[in-house]
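User: Fold this, then the next.

Assistant: Folding the first:
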Amino acid sequence: MGESALEALRRTPLYEHHVRLKARIVEFAGWAMPLQYEGIVAEHRAVRSGCGIFDVSHMAEFWIEGPQALRTLDRLLCNDPKRLADCQGMYTPLCNERGGILDDLVVLRVWGERFLVVGNASRREVDGAWLRTHAHGCRVRDATEQTALVAVQGPLAAELLQPLVEADLGSVRYYHCVPETRVAGVRALVSRTGYTGEDGFEVFTPWEEAGRVWEALLEAGAVPCGLGARDTLRLEAGYLLYGQDMDEETTPWEAGLGWTVKLEGRTFIGREALWRQREEGVRRRLVGLEVRGRAIARPGAPILRDGTNVGVVTSGSWGPWVQKSIALGYVPPSLAQPGTQVQVEIRGRGVPAEVVKLPFYRRIPRTKSSAG
């Protein structure tokens, strides 16, 4: 993109590193971000077979701290934060009163009444305002532009990262974290989380010191990856993208996130609407689609059944690892059963597609070693 357009965008602390690596820079949620380096397919395959690293410092981060932090989050989240032990995290929608998804979050209970909430870059202002409005007896601090975040993803992630980390990564379970350690000599919080469908870690560091971690990972053999590969990886893994696959008009039941909704014995914003929808049923469901041939189902493409428009594609791409044209989309519940035959309108014609069980790709866990 043009230099004048780039100047108006926020830059992560790793921006100059991306420029030196000759990344293709694009705008994303107001940030100048790397779309790709060597190429989307090559980067995708590097994560599936080895280890890739992503600059995701644009993600929104909030610290929720104080004597009523847990109670506040319990009133706000669909998932139940009371289940979290220290150093444990969870994935959860944040809903409005109608049960619509304001954002999807990762919430880490670092210790006691201290929580780290990670949201989407595009929803930073919405999340911050919602959290502050509903917080009682606790502090909400936006740490987005003080906290850098590097995702280390792939079957070799633990093996590559371990020599740089003081903590034992083998003892860190999925969706758990090490609140205080050092990575390449830099103070860091390390969580075993990610958005690729692979094993991996996310490394939170002070903003100004992220470059040391990034360069150490490159030197160790990690492949730099951009937003393009991040999108194809998450799609193969059946992970949703906020703003495409869900929004404020979508509920967790519709989006296939019912497993995150804990209704019993709790009162939280959106609970009544979600309880009612569970009893009455939904009018649409998110499904996976395998499209015949190599045609790509783009977001917004109509989903057809016997020539009638019955739904819409929300995400679609060629799956570089599964070697199929894959998509996510919404259809009526009567057409959501795996094996259902539909068509997707691509360039004016109906291309055959089949509803399939998600995810499109599921990793095979490696044998445990000292590195996890």
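Now the next one, as you asked:
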Amino acid sequence: MTTRRRSLAAGLAVFYLIGLLGGCGTTKATAQPLPGGIFLGATKSGRADGTPIRLDLVRPGPSLVSYMAPGSHVYSLYYWSRGQRTQAYLDVPPGRGPFPLLIELHGGSFGAMSTHFPLPVFFQTTTTAVIATQPSAIVFLPNYVGYGPSRGKVGDAHQDFLDVRSGLAAVAQVRGLRVKPHATYLFGESLGGAIGAMLANGDPSIRAAAFVSPWPGATQALNWWQAHATALNADERSEYQALAAFEAPGFGEAWFRANSFGCRGLQVPVLLIGGTQDDVVPPGMLAAMAVRLKGCGAHVELKFVPGGHAPYDANVQALIQAWFASQGATLQF
């Protein structure tokens, strides 16, 4: 873990505003390599999921450049997913590689479905992309449909998973990008943890995952809530009213089935980190998730740290960095 990442994580919103005021332009993608040596070339017509639209070089404002990993480049990749122009950031380090691929998945809100979140600071922005640059790994930071620059309205976890999968298909069509085979690592927060579990299910290219306050999946969360509802206070119970109302329109059996990841093929080593005062994914719910994943054959380590939902400080960063190092990847957090 670096001092650079500790300080930037704490001041994310401030640095984003500074970077915005400092100017952030893009260079239109062409068939010629962009700085860093990658390009799309000719893109296909049509809107099939995973079809890339354009690849732009992101030029961070001068206040952010000094925080990038030396020699790295940040790109904005647009692609089609579920009929929408969907956006993701792609960080590429210097050198020929091949490099491991780190997928970073942001959280969200089931309560925000059917709305659009244009630019909340805790989703992927130019600043988060700069923070995420790695000296020895490619980083993929997708914005699901409805979040940030991606068009459309916010969907559910299964739809977000489809957006990430489409994004990875688009990344595979970026030329000059040297991704190391069977060396993909996942990091996700909250909803991003559930999406990450869906991605890891049966994918042999994924080596390890680290999830902070991960959403345990709709069916699993509902079962836990129903078993513990009488022990929760009124404020805690209010966090789960949407789950309890599973008969309401939009929350039928099919919705719960789609938003509950199976784990028949999930044998990826997983680190779960939770906050001791988390009122969204309480410690008991996260412990139940750990038991479920272990039952799937996965190697699971469970850690709790002081804090609420999705805690992220120097201690958490150190835990994540040490975890990935134990799984064969030197990644900075």
